[in-house]
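sorry to bug you again but im stuck and you know this stuff better than me. what follows is a protein written twice so to speak, once as letters and once as structure tokens for the fold. mainly i need to know what kind of three dimensional shape the backbone takes. anything you notice is useful, everything is just below:
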Amino acid sequence: MHPGDWHRTDDLDLFLSRAGAFLHAQPALHTVPLTVTEALRTRGPQVYGDGAAVFGVLEREGEVRAVYFRTPPFRLYLTRLTPEEADALAVHLAAVDHSLPGVSGERATAAAFTEAWQRHTGATAGLHERQRLYRLGTLTIPGPAPEGRPRVVGEQDRAQLVRWKDEFSAAVGGMSDSRADEWAESRIAYGGVTFWEDADGSPVSMAGATPMIAGQVRVAPVYTPSHLRGRGYAGAVTAEVSRVAVASGADEVLLFTDLANPTSNALYQRIGYRPVADFAVYDFTA
């Protein structure tokens, strides 16, 4: 396969005109590019950082086979590739940019690209996280329910939401989110985060959800401060957000978990989530 089969652009509209049907054909597997491009389209090109987003499309015989995107400073994201396609992409990207901080994608794809990237650039790589994508089957409300109630966040919750977003990012070892305030503003605007409040009305956990696109909603993030865990708050608020997503007409309700956390994986399966595919995240060092 020739690297020239990959086409790179920083034009979001052009990318979507080429790749939109491909992404919509498998909305669960493509939940990340669908939601990221929707955020870029509706909230502006700097929603994830000051650097310009770049996109790539693999076309052969007039058919889109795969895509990639990157929103600097974050990692490269890939849809499913064969090892040959991953190798051609590494050659294609190495010709224009040696500074990739890492890659994220379906497990075999991410591993194949990482191997090819090391071979073509001399970079070193380390596994950052193993993830599992789940899809909601039949929702089961976990019991017994903790004391308290769910409440959709409002403007009065902005400071709490920003603080918890920062804590969540630190807890999962993610890259620093310099736009947590803008993220909070957007989520507040469409009611995209729900708090679980205890009997005294104090927020004790949160679960968010992306806007619906291509019939799918992804639950993210789910966060409970460490000193409040083990009391059923995360399960209750995740079940509530999942219920609302189903009631809103979503065909698929999705979420990612860290496979290193058996507690959360077991919890989401009790609620009714079933595995779809495994993903991996790698970090690169030049």
In short: The longest helix spans residues 107-121. The helical segments are 12-25, 31-43, 83-94, 107-121, 158-171, 180-190, 233-247, 262-271. The mean pLDDT is 94. The CA atoms of residues 90 and 117 lie 5 Å apart.
